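in:
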């Protein structure tokens, strides 16, 4: 039995997998004493742990210590690569790419095996383009929903608002509406740009993942929703690394 972990800057997802079957899964917070709440497994049953992370080195080391102590099994961190099974990164230095982006792309590549576009709407929003030959054409990194809200609350003077989930893009008539409608307006613009780019790059398959994927879908993004795309890609790569 193996444990797969997709660890962001603060939150993480975990999945207990046995012979390709999901046994259990959940979410946690890296900084908590127990970053894997809800995971109860008999000691010794986890044979290995595979991790995809973009967390700081301090948080990564803390997570590693917890995993090693708790399971007594090998823990391997998987990072972005230059190429794998037909998928090739556009980065000259692949170590500069976040592991989550590479693993999401690999999951989508193995799923589609043709041109696709991945939108990962997490703490940051990433958009990556891959052509029908598996060539990564590059992408974009944008601030995510909570990052936008936090920047307005912390860095802008005298802006106070209710951080509601709003989809309206009409002009706001209060500060709270102006902020929430403004964020929705930006998200809608992102959706429209993704549509335009998919046509320009002749990409038919659009895949969306991440905690705010539902917001983009509600704003008109036509895409396949894959909530665990990073974990899917990580699982495939880990399986290939341990193939006999």
């Amino acid at each position: 039995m193996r444990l797969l972990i997709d660890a962001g800057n603060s939150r993480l997802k975990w999945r207990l997998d046995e012979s390709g079957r999901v046994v259990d899964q959940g979410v946690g917070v890296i900084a908590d004493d127990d970053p894997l709440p809800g995971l109860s497994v008999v000691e010794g049953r986890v044979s290995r742990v595979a991790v995809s992370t973009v967390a700081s080195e301090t948080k990564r080391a803390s997570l590693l210590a917890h995993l090693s102590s708790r399971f007594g099994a090998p823990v391997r961190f998987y990072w972005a690569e230059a190429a794998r099974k037909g998928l090739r990164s556009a980065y000259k230095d692949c170590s500069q790419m976040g592991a989550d982006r590479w693993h999401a792309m690999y999951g989508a590549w193995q799923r589609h095996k043709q041109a696709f576009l991945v939108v990962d709407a997490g703490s940051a929003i990433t958009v990556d383009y891959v052509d029908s030959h598996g060539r990564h054409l590059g992408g974009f990194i944008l601030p995510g929903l909570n990052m936008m809200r936090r920047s307005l609350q912390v860095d802008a003077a005298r802006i106070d608002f209710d951080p509601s989930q709003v989809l309206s893009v009409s002009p706001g008539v209060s500060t709270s509406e102006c902020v929430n409608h403004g964020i929705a307006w930006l998200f809608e613009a992102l959706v429209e740009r993704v549509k335009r780019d998919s046509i320009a790059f002749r990409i038919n398959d659009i895949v969306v993942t991440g905690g705010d994927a539902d917001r983009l879908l509600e704003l008109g993004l036509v895409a396949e929703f894959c909530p665990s795309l990073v974990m899917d890609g990580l699982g495939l790569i880990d399986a290939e690394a341990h193939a006999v």
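note: The first strand starts at residue 2 and ends at 7.
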